[in-house]
Amino acid sequence: MKAFGFLSFGHYQIGQERSMLHQALELAKEADAIGVNGAYFRVHHFAPQGAAPMPLLGAIIGATKNIEVGTGVIDMRYENPLHLAEEAAALNLLADGRMALGVSRGSPEPAEKGWESFGYDTGDDPKGAGMAREKFQRFMAAVDGYGMAVAAENQYPRLYRPGTALPIFPHDPELRKSIWWGAGSHNTAIQAAKDGVNLMSSTLVSEATGQSLSELQFDQIQNYRNAWKEAGHDWTPRVSVSRSIFPIVTDRDRELFGLQGQGDDQIGIIDDTRTTFGRPYAGTPDELIEQLKEDRAVMDADTLMLTVPNQMGVELNASILRNFAEHIAPALGWEPNTSGPVKGYEF
Fold first, then answer.
1. Residue 100 and residue 174 in contact, taking contact as beta carbons nearer than 8 Å
2. Can you give the CATH number for the domain in which 222 is found?
3. Cβ–Cβ < 8 Å for 66, 29
4. Pairing of strands 303-308, 3-8
């Protein structure tokens, strides 16, 4: 584990949008001061969990020095891929590469085919997987600078030879290295490697074999890295996993989180698929160090995202990050961030 960040995880009270956005900004500033590597935000539509992340990410970039900003994850079913490519390039250029934009097909949501309300029709595809795949491919083609439109015969002002293939602007040649795919299974992790993007794995894997989440994710990461080698890409990708981790350092920590670490991984159904959900970790620093060193996925990934209860306020969440940074992360190989995003592990 080279790096760790926080993943905003949890609902907020309807009517508190202004407060929650400002708290997200303040928590990111606190995290940057601590030396935390990343501030990442869930994106859900028609739910009080945050949507339209670019304004928040831009505000954080402008208010911090080193911390990476990103999403976990943007639902491609709701996106115009070319508009997203323009926004992503602009943000990454402003951020000097401090962006980790996680995208995916998306997860189950409150709305029935909510993307149709945004103007995108999937026809007979109830989950929109095919449309999400097509949009992702178009998004990546735009990211890579391919022509996405044709110059008109009658232009004003006249900028291009008619018929010229036109890319989107702005273009960032390094943007691909800041794109992550949120993979819920071994197959989608392998596809992410073939597509040439970083891997973002959550607190669950959409498989249930009797293995722990740690073992399933470790296998997922190995499959991804093997597929990356076979694809022959010329750069080293990054891999992140997410965990709920609560260091118990004070009596308040024990009162709030003392019971969190007593559960085990769970098997449930999500999106009509048997899924392994990871257990939360809670304990003293020595206990957590021992447990996390045994978590093969955490130790094999370069980045760990701590899912924080953002609805509990800035001070409490900053204390979780500070306790993890001071008492646990150094024993796992982490050093405070002073220079922006980390590089992936060579493999």
1. no
2. 3.20.20.30
3. no
4. parallel
